Predict the structure.
Amino acid sequence: MDDYAGVFSLAAPVEEHPPGTLVQVAVSPAHPSRLVLDFSEHPVLMDACVLLCGHIGALELLELGYTGPLVRRPRLAAVAPSSTSHRALPDGRRS
């Protein structure tokens, strides 16, 4: 598959597949605004709005010619080192 983008996680249900399901994704050569979600039983044409797509995944789709909508997941915030030293104790107090 020349337009293979990789394995992505679903952000929304697709047919009987719940969010979080991993699926192989390719850009449709005939319809570059659509993606081919290759579930083992059959492929499904969708746009990227159903995928959890980070910055790298979005770039990969665009580099392969995808022209449809993208929804990128927000970047994860880094945890400050000082915040980990003040964990809540079981009784609600801070350490």
User: Anything to note?
Assistant: The domain at 4-63 is CATH 2.30.30 (SH3 type barrels.). The first strand starts at residue 4 and ends at 10. The mean pLDDT is 81. The helical segments are 55-63, 81-84.
